[in-house]
Design goal:
- The chain is mainly beta and 94 residues long.
- The protein has one domain.
- It has no helices and 6 strands.
- Strands 5-4-3-6 form a 4-stranded antiparallel β-sheet, with no helix packed on it. Strands 1-2 form a two-stranded antiparallel ribbon.
- Strand 1 and strand 2 form a beta hairpin.
Length: 94
């Protein structure tokens, strides 16, 4: 399963005299693991935000041991069906 992800790259753009920001890039990456977090309390506890753990591209800015975490946007990934995954707690191995 390939997911469309937007991640920050190491290239930095100057925004102002004393400020800068990382540029972003879009990519299709295969997740290693998918993590879900509840949106809130009450009825919102049954709704989730989804994050994927991916092997980081060479230009990714924030990596840990060659891995990065990316938010899965459902509008960009209509083929992503979390109910079809096997969940062990709040983690699914792909």
């Amino acid at each position: 399963m390939l997911l469309n992800i937007r991640y920050q790259i190491t290239e930095v753009e100057r925004v102002g005299e004393h400020t800068s920001q990382h540029l972003q890039r879009d990519a299709q990456l295969r997740p290693i693991r998918i993590v879900r977090e509840p949106c809130g309390k009450g009825a919102a506890a049954n709704r989730f935000r989804y994050y994927g753990i991916f092997t980081a591209p060479s230009d990714a800015a924030h990596t840990v041991d060659g891995m990065m975490r990316g938010h899965i946007v459902r509008e960009v990934n209509p083929h992503f069906k979390p109910k079809a995954l096997y969940w062990d707690g709040n983690t699914a191995l792909v």
